[in-house]
Design a protein that fits this description.
Layout lengths: L2 H25 L3 H6 L16 H4 L4 E6 L2 E5 L2 H10 L4 E8 L10 E11 L3 H4 L1 E2 L2 H7 L4 E9 L5 E6 L10 E6 L4 H4 L4 E6 L10 E3 L1 E5 L1 E7 L2 H8 L4 E3 L3 E3 L5 E6 L4 E6 L12 H14 L7 E7 L5 E8 L2 E4 L6 E7 L2 E10 L1 E6 L5 E5 H10 L7 E12 L8 E11 L2 E4 L7 E2 L1
Parallel strand pairs: 3-5, 19-24
Antiparallel strand pairs: 1-2, 1-4, 2-9, 3-8, 4-6, 6-7, 7-8, 9-10, 11-23, 12-22, 12-25, 13-14, 14-15, 15-16, 16-21, 17-18, 18-19, 18-20, 20-21, 24-25, 25-26, 26-27
Length: about 425
Amino acid sequence: MKLETFSTILLIILVALSLVLTAYVWTFQPNSLESEGIGTEEPKTLDGVEKQLADVVRPAHTYIHKNDGNFVFTSKDQEQKFIDQLSSWTLTDTKRNDQSQSQIPANSVELVYPVTVAFSQLNNLFQVEGAENITNRLGNGGFTRVYLTPNENGSTGLLFLNEHQENPMENVVTATVTNNINEILNSGNLTAAVTLSETNTWNQIYLPEKIDVSDSIVRSETISRNAFAGIYMEDPSVQGSDQYIDANRLESVQFSNSGQFASYSYSNPSSSSMGTATRADQLQAAINTINSHKGWTNNFNLYAVSGEGSFTFQFRMVRNGYPVFQASGLSLMSIRMQNNLPDPVSYERTLLNIGTTGNSESNVSLEAKDVQDWIEENQYSPRDIDDVVIGYKLEEYEESDIFKYHMQPCWYVKYQGDWLEVEGSTTGGKN
């Protein structure tokens, strides 16, 4: 064979080999990517959003006190806009104080939180000058109410106290902001409020004498069972139609209410020594857990905390600033942490996602007298009443194929830990 012919054949072989190798490189995928899904699998989410502490730890009530009268906002929208501003306020001269000989000024704005908030979390709710150095020096304890009072120089004084202490004014935290609240005190968008009882001092409840609230019909959709189960389980086995169990039998998800409510549990919480200890840390871990799968599918606020050492945090759905109540728990998320685990040991939540609002059915007039008469008729002691709110009763709406639920404004009373619907505003019941 001539040298030229051999060279031509060799060149053809090399070019062909080069083409084969190039094609292999372009189409190559490591086995680890195929088996483990590294870099190829989208994060598992419920298609909601992420929230910060200030988004879910919010006042349940805003009371305005002026000229020996008590008032509330006529519009929840205006109240919520005011509360939204708080996270941008900068607290200065924040310190512990003893004001046991002082009284709350006559002119003030009072913010009432549904749970005790730790002083260490102040820098998550406000901008605190000095940040963690200041909040760490405040020590243990927390607050349930904040009083905002105007100063002569246009600034505002803040007083954080815990109504559950024997003398709430004895060990308070005070601070100052440059923001002016006279616009709120002098607002024309306020309506008169009456006290529920003259016997309660530090945990006084104020009810609007009369207020109109629009009801509405809403669209809804249900988050799929597989989407929720897939957050914690790689390859679950299905037991019947309502339970998913992982291969090691350590985790399970139970579904109820036609797949609209899910309950996750982890049965071996002692396997890890890492985790959170304080209630504040566990609350942040709970929020982080829900953020990890974008589980805030509607607006939720923290409304209850229970437990000792290991805490359960209950978040309630909120619509237009009003809490939502539903007899089967379809407005709730509850997550239980353990002080040696960063992840929850149980997580119960609604899978109902409330969407677009239809036309308002009507305006519902709610009066304080309805609550007062109902309490008297049922012989409840005002001292045993923890709270009274206007909320939405979520009920099925059968007159439309598009709008599945009706949101009916009602009075709700929290009596000995249970929320009771005031009979007379609509048919009564318990959540």
